[in-house]
Specification:
13 helices; about 75% helix; mainly alpha; globular; about 300 residues; three-stranded mixed beta sheet
């Protein structure tokens, strides 16, 4: 590690601090969670694509969520399974692989929120403008919403990571369980105030826009439901919106927990654990919530098993 070129190309990942005794339960938990995440989310994608009754804007937009969950778990979990039995000093990753992982982590960690925003717009149109739903939620609109959900995070994450890549680095240790943007700019001994300001600004704006859009959508839906005597409308709103809101609150709670723990060095180990669970808990719960709450998906699953 004394060679400068080698030090720039190979990084050491500290990973989770697990004892030799607890490494086996941790491996089993992560392995089973990863298998479940992949089977359940890919199963939902296949079900939606194969069942023509599910070829509706609501489910086509939702299809992006299990794609995001499956990819997010794949970017994070297998690398941790590979390193969990190794000593901290033996866990290495190339700098290029670290940059790619950090880029994908930020894209997939943010896309689930933009996808939920797009799904919220679909629910707003379906409940508040049901007569114009088919004319508004065309195939072109669905593709545009999906492209927006992915495009915004791809561009913003690209700028975020490029600012860190430009920095020279004098350290070769990644303190987090996987590579992300803070891990990259912490490798540098240069002034990283621009990276911190940009990261803080896009995170703040992202959260403000996300919460504002969801809040505006459901306030409008709530006002319409309270002012209407149509029991069918209220039932439809409860069935479709409760599922979407439940998923959004899970993502919100996991994100806020991760952000808060990373701000306090006293909870560094808990922050590492939260950063891993962020790609495990929502990805595991989303298929259950949509599979149990959504009648059409339940019927599709019943057809397959029957």
């Amino acid at each position: 590690m004394e060679n400068g070129t080698y030090r720039n190309q190979i990084l050491m990942i500290e990973g989770l601090k697990v004892t030799p005794l607890s490494s086996y339960p941790a491996f089993i938990f992560l392995f089973l969670a990863y298998i479940y995440i992949m089977v359940s989310n890919i199963g939902l994608i296949v079900l939606i694509l194969m069942d023509k009754t599910l070829h509706k804007p609501m489910y086509l937009l939702f299809c992006n969520l299990p794609i995001c969950d499956a990819l997010g778990a794949t970017v994070v979990v297998p690398g941790m399974l590979k390193d969990i039995f190794k000593q901290a000093s033996d866990r290495y990753i190339s700098y290029i692989a670290c940059v790619i992982q950090a880029y994908l982590v930020h894209i997939l960690g943010s896309s689930n929120q933009t996808i939920l925003m797009a799904m919220g717009f679909d629910r707003y149109v379906a409940i508040c403008n049901p007569l114009r739903y088919n004319s508004i939620m065309t195939n072109k609109m669905v593709v545009s919403l999906a492209a927006f959900a992915w495009g915004v995070t791809i561009i913003l994450s690209g700028i975020l990571i490029s600012l860190s890549v430009k920095l020279s680095h004098c350290s070769s240790t990644i303190s987090n369980p996987y590579c992300d943007n803070p891990s990259l700019f912490k490798l540098s001994c240069e002034n990283v105030i621009i990276n911190q300001i940009y990261g803080f600004c896009i995170t703040s704006v992202f959260w403000i826009v996300s919460i504002s859009c969801i809040a505006f959508t459901y306030i409008k839906i709530a006002i319409l439901c309270l002012s209407s005597d149509n029991s069918g409308l209220k039932s439809k709103a409860m069935k479709t919106c409760s599922t979407h809101l439940c998923v959004y609150f899970i993502v919100l709670a996991c994100s806020f927990t991760l952000i808060i723990l990373h701000r306090f060095t006293a909870f560094a180990d808990l922050g590492k654990l939260a950063s891993v669970l962020y790609y495990v808990i929502p990805s595991s719960l989303n298929p259950i919530i949509y599979g149990v709450q959504t009648k059409e998906i339940r019927q599709g699953l019943w057809k397959i098993f029957h």
